[in-house]
Amino acid sequence: MTGSSQQDAGFTLIEVVISLALFALISIGGLALIDAVIRVEERTSGRIERLGQLQRAMFMLTRDLEQIAGGTLEQAEAGIRFERHFGSSVEAGRAISYALRGDSLFREVGGTASGTSQLLMSGVSSAKWSFFFSGRGWLDEIPAAEGGLVLQPVAVAVDILLDEGRAPSGSLRRVVELPTPASPELPL
Predict the structure, then answer these.
(1) Rounded mean pLDDT of 14-18?
(2) Is 113 left (phi over 0), alpha (psi -120 to 50) or beta?
(3) pLDDT per residue over 68-86, tens digit each?
(4) Which of 6, 50, 60, 178 has CA 20 to 30 A from 134's CA?
(5) DSSP characters for 115-169?
(6) What are the residue ranges spanned by the domains of the chain?
(7) Is 26 helix (H, G, I), strand (E, B) or coil?
C-alpha cells in the first residue's frame, strides 16, 4: 500500500494570517466609511431641520401680514403688532405680534394675557423692521401724521441676522406687500 500525502490537506499558518490581515484591512476601511456617512447625515439633518424652521417662520410672517385686518400696524418693543383676519370675514381680527426675545423670534396670538406664544426661530442675532410708504420710500419707523392719525405702510420688510454658530447662518430679508391700506398714505 502506498502512503497518503498530507501536503494538500489544508491551509498553512502563513495563508491564514495573510487572509485575516486582508479581512481586517477591508473591515477598517468599511468602518471608516460608515462613520463618515453617519457624521455627514447628522450635519445634514441638522441643517435641513434649521432650513425648515426658517421656511415655516417666513411663511407664517408672510401669511399674517397678507391677511392684516383693517386695524393699524404698530411698532412694538423689538417687533410689530397688528390684527389679522382668521376664518370668515365676519369674524373679528385677532391680535398678532412678532418680537425678538433673547436670541429667538416669537409670534404671539391673541395678546399676552390670554394668547399663545409660539417660537418661530431660534439663533437670531437681530431683527430689523422697516416700512415702505408711497412717495417716501423705506422708513425705520411708522410716522404719525397731523392730528395724531397713524399712517399705514404699503409694505413691511424684516431683516433677520442669524447667529454665526448655527448652520445656515447669514441674513434673511422678507418683504411683504400689505393689502390696500384703510388709512391715508403719508403726504409728500
Answers:
(1) 93
(2) alpha
(3) 876 678 888 789 998 887 7
(4) 60
(5) SEEEEEEE-EEEEEEEEEETTTEEESS--B-GGGPBP--SEEEEEEEEPTTSSS-
(6) 35-177
(7) helix
